[in-house]
C-alpha cells in the first residue's frame, strides 16, 4: 500500500476547506437575502455579523492568510463584536462564549506580538 505524497494530501485538505468555507458563506449570504426580503430589520445585525465573520473566513482561506496576525486580529475582533451584538439582542450563553473565545485569541495575539 502506498501513501499519497504530502503535497497531494495538502491539496485535498485545502480543497475540502475551500468547499466548506464557500458553502458556509453561501448559507450566510442566502440568510442575508432572506432577511432583507422579509423586511425583518431586527435581524440585520445578526446578518451583518454573520456575513463579516464568514466573509473574513473565506478571504483568509482562499488567500491562504489565516496565519497572519492582521487577518487573525480582523477575524477574532469580528467574533467579539458579533458576539456582543448578539448578546445585546438576546442574552445567550453561547454569545458570551463567542466573545470570550474571540477575546482570548486577541489577547494571545497581542502577547505573541509583544514577545516577538
TrEMBL record:
TM stretches of this protein: 15-37, 43-63, 93-111
Superkingdom as given in the UniProt entry: Archaea
Alphabetical UniProt keywords: Membrane, Transmembrane, Transmembrane helix
Keyword Membrane recorded: yes
Protein name as annotated: Uncharacterized protein
Lineage: Archaea, Methanobacteriati, Methanobacteriota, Stenosarchaea group, Halobacteria
Amino acid at each position: 500500500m502506498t501513501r499519497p505524497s504530502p503535497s497531494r494530501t495538502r491539496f485535498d485538505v485545502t480543497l475540502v476547506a475551500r468547499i466548506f468555507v464557500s458553502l458556509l458563506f453561501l448559507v450566510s449570504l442566502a440568510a442575508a437575502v432572506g432577511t432583507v426580503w422579509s423586511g425583518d430589520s431586527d435581524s440585520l445585525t445578526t446578518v451583518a455579523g454573520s456575513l463579516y465573520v464568514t466573509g473574513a473566513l473565506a478571504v483568509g482561506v482562499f488567500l491562504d492568510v489565516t496565519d497572519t496576525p492582521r487577518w487573525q486580529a480582523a477575524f477574532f475582533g469580528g467574533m467579539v463584536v458579533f458576539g456582543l451584538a448578539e448578546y445585546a439582542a438576546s442574552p445567550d450563553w453561547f454569545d458570551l462564549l463567542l466573545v470570550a473565545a474571540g477575546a482570548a485569541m486577541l489577547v494571545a495575539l497581542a502577547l505573541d506580538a509583544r514577545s516577538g
